[in-house]
Design a protein that fits this description.
Blueprint lengths: L9 E4 L7 E2 L2 E2 L3 E5 L5 E2 L16 E5 L7 E2 L3 E2 L4 E6 L2 E4 L7
């Protein structure tokens, strides 16, 4: 069975320290990605949150203009996004430097 994905869909998150993470799935509904040196997940938090029952969270905004999947400095056009660890924060593992 073929799985259809919208652009910027968060498929997996390895950052189990995030309050939105449930069984390596993001329950934030939407995430924000930003940062200068890294494609940092700005939605990451360890505070108590209300998780949303959404099957496929989306990248609502991406400020990483240096990524080849970033269009108009805010829209993520990656076919799918995964998040992982970088030092003390979550990071978009789907980042690819622009051409």
């Amino acid at each position: 069975m073929k799985m259809e994905c919208e652009m910027g869909t968060v498929l997996a998150c390895q950052v189990d320290a995030c309050s939105y993470n449930r069984n390596l799935e993001c329950r934030a509904g939407q995430i924000e990605v930003g940062g200068c040196e890294h494609a940092k997940c700005d939605t990451f938090t360890t505070e108590q949150v209300e998780e949303l029952e959404t099957a496929k969270p989306m990248v609502a905004n991406c400020d990483v203009a240096g990524c080849k999947f970033n269009e108009n400095a805010t829209m993520c056009l990656a076919p799918a996004v995964s998040l992982g660890h970088h030092e003390q924060h979550a990071e978009c593992d789907s980042f690819v430097p622009g051409m």
